[in-house]
Write a structure and sequence with these properties.
229 residues, Heme Oxygenase, Chain A
Length: 229
């Protein structure tokens, strides 16, 4: 007995390591417009197709400000000792708080705008993460993976497109990673291997709870992205 039940069925991606499991779940939650090859999700009713986005500098600045609030929370959590597994994710090279601070300053100087005070979806997401990180490390790790890896993939595409529309093609610091640490590809590979190591210590039930958190991550990051639309 004990064979053939839900708990013993192999999960997609399982053989390649836990990151591949998380990736599989995440890719399916994209819409077809976002990820034509793997996306399967219906777009949420409150979202606008990217084709119809009408970004402005004001909206984009608000997005950067809210994103910074969220990344600050993420980086604070990793630096906390809320769980012993977080320490491995300190100083990965993926951190986005200081690049965002530079971009916000650049926006203010270049366009004469005043950055709004963060009080929206980025703060909401950050507060949510701080609570979650104390009680549920596997669920927190799901958000950590999705936020940083989404930014390196779809986030970069969006950055390029929006910059062409409203910033004369200027590449923001938010979309640059330090070459001194091997650049984005090396940081992603290092973090992937650390994520796989962390998940080695989890039961199947903890892994599943982590995977199930993916939709929440899409929902909360989606609210952030909608600031641009
Ligand atoms: C990967 C697009 C939003 C999580 C990708 C890929 C694309 C994409 C094109 C690359 C697939 C590949 O070639 O391997 C988009 C677009 C988005 C969006 C256009 C919004 C407009 C999100 C959100 C999340 C997310 C909200 C989760 C919070 C991920 C993850 C990957 C990914 C985890 C895998 C990255 C990797 O394999 O390293 N996305 N995405 N994406 N996306 Fe998104």
């Amino acid at each position: 007995h004990g064979h053939g039940g839900a708990s013993s069925r192999p999960r997609p991606g399982e053989k390649k390591g836990f990151v591949e499991e998380m990736r599989f779940v995440a890719m399916k939650l994209h819409t077809r417009e976002q990820a034509p090859k793997e996306g399967e999700a219906k777009p949420p009713p409150e979202s606008k197709p990217m084709m119809q986005w009408e970004p402005t500098r004001e909206k984009y600045l608000a997005y950067l400000v809210e994103s910074k609030a969220m990344y600050e929370a993420m980086e604070e959590i990793v630096a906390s000792k809320a769980s012993p597994i977080y320490e491995a994710f300190l100083d990965t090279g993926l951190e986005r708080t200081s690049p965002l601070a530079k971009d916000i300053e650049w926006f203010e100087k270049t366009y004469g705008l005043t950055a709004p005070v963060a009080d929206g979806p980025g703060v909401e997401y950050g507060n949510f993460l701080k609570e979650l990180a104390k009680t549920s490390p596997p669920e927190f790790i799901c958000h950590f993976y999705n936020v940083y890896f989404a930014h390196s993939a779809g986030g970069r595409m969006i950055g390029r497109k929006v910059s062409e529309m409203i910033l004369n093609g200027k590449e923001l610091e938010f979309y640059k990673w330090e070459e001194s640490r091997g650049g984005l590809e090396q940081s992603l590979a290092d973090v992937k291997s650390k994520l796989n190591d962390a998940a080695e210590g989890w039961s199947r039930e903890e892994k599943d709870r982590c995977l199930e958190e993916t939709s929440k991550s899409f929902q909360m990051s989606g609210q952030l992205l909608r600031l641009i639309a």
